Every structure is written in C-alpha cells, then in structure tokens.
Amino acid sequence: MQRLGMEHGEAIEHKMVNRAIENAQKKVEGMNYDARKNLLEYDNVANDQRKVVYQLRDELMSVDDVQDRFISIRKSVVTALLADYISTETAEEEWNVEGLQNALKSDYAADFELQKWLDEKINIDELEAKIIQNLSQICADKENLVGSEQMRAFEKAVMLQTLDHYWKEHLAAMDYLRQSVNLRGYAQKNPAQEYKRESFTMFEAFLDTINVEIVMRLNKASFWIIFWCNFSPIICPIAATGSRLRDNFQSIKTSNATKVAIFKLTKINHKTNKVLRNFSLVI
C-alpha cells in the first residue's frame, strides 16, 4: 500500500475491487443458502427414519409377547443367510456348505450336520425349513428350562436393547455422513440426493443388522440361576438337558442351610463376567 502512495486506514475504492468483493459475497451467501436448504432435506430424511424406528419400538413396548415377531425375524435371517452360501442359481458343486455350517455354529450356536441333510437329497427350501426348525428347538429347550414367562420377557428385552444400541450407532453414522456429504459438490454431485441415497442404504443395513443380532443373541444366550440362601448367592449354570439345574435346585432345597427365597434368571456376558439382565421370582 505504501508503494501505491496510500496512507494507513485509507479506504480502497475501485470498481474492480468492489466488483470482486460483491461476487465473492454472492458466492458465500449462495453457498450458505444451499447449506440451509439441504439441512431441511437432511432433517426430513432423518425424521422419516425416526418415525419408523419409534413406531417399531412402541409396538415392542405395547405387548408382553413378541415371540411371533421373533419367529418372523428368524425366518428372514435364515433365508438371507442361506442366500450368501447356497443358491439355486449356482451349481451344487459351488455351494459353500462348510461356510454355512461354520456361520451357524459360530454366530448362532447351532452345530448342524448340513452335509448329511443334503445327502438325503433335500432341496434348498427343505434345508431352510430344517434349519429354522432346529434353531426353534434350541430356543424351545431354553424356554422349557426357564419358563415361558421369563423367556418372553427376555426376548422383549433383547429386542429393545438391540434396537436402541444400533439406532444410536446409526444416528452417529448419519451425522458423520451429513458433515461430509457437502464435499461431493466438488465432484458435480448433488449433496442432498447423495445424502438421501446413502442414508436409505444405511437404514436398510441398520434394519438387517438388528434382525441378525436379535437372532444371534437369543440363540447364543446362556442362562444362569442364582439361588440366594442366607443372603449368599449360589450360581448354577443351566445345562442343555436341565438335569444339572434340577439336581442343584433339589440339593439346595433339601439342604440344612435355609430355604430358597429368590429364584433369579441372569444373563451373563462370559467375556466380561458382567450381569446383563436379571429376572426374579419369589418361590
């Protein structure tokens, strides 16, 4: 400025400078307007998804028995799982039966002899029905041990906890998408359309995830019985046959210590040894 002979604090006046400032100001205002307009569209998308999730949660909260919903979810999960490993569109030699068996064993605590079933010349629909029947039997065995009332309460609790957990994760992912999607405007893409497209894909994945997690948790859940005698807990794992539970229960009831006061069904995370859920009955 000193070279131009201008003094400190003197206003810069020139048509070119004024025009450049005006153009820059218009661009900034236009960008801010587009951002505000997109925010409304982002909120509408999030609100539509929120309505679906809240309606689902209200339906779960309004009933005590969610077994029919769980049966429907289990069927859809098994159908999708089979499609990943076995398909009618591929040759039988290309079926990944071992991968399917490992997935059922590791994710659903179900060790089925799939190859033996297939050797009986059953088709894919019959195989799916047999897997669903055996998964159902696993849950039925647990229900026989702990009682229908406790099992229904546990199914409802698992559904609600799974929905809440993954909904919070989904909201965080949507917020991250909202912050980053505007950069796609530099690639000549409409940020609002990109947000709608990706958020829809993410929401579908969210719904699929909670369905899979519900079936996994209910099939893999292990239960423990805590008997309280003189305010001292005695923990007994529920065996698959139930004989260990009955033997332990009988020995405690006939012991000379005290009478059993509380029957408590507890779900324990074996990795952290933390109690995840309790149900109590006075007996």
Structure report:
With 283 residues, the protein is α+β, with helices and mostly antiparallel strands. The protein folds into 2 domains: 67-220, Orthogonal Bundle (Helical scaffold and wing domains of SecA), CATH 1.10.3060.10; 223-282. It contains 8 helices and 4 strands. A 4-stranded antiparallel sheet has the order 2-1-3-4, with helices on one face. A hairpin with a 2-residue loop joins strand 1 (223-229) and strand 2 (232-237). Residues 239-270 and 275-283 have low confidence and may be disordered.
Number of strands: 4
CATH class identity of the largest domain: Mainly Alpha
Strand order, largest beta sheet: 2-1-3-4
Q: Helix fraction?
A: 55-70%
Shape: elongated
Quote the beta fraction.
5-15%
Query: How many domain modules?
Result: 2
Return residue spans where pLDDT drops below 50 for at least 5 consecutive residues.
Answer: 239-270, 275-283
If helices are DSSP runs of H or I spanning 4 or more residues, what is the number of helices?
8
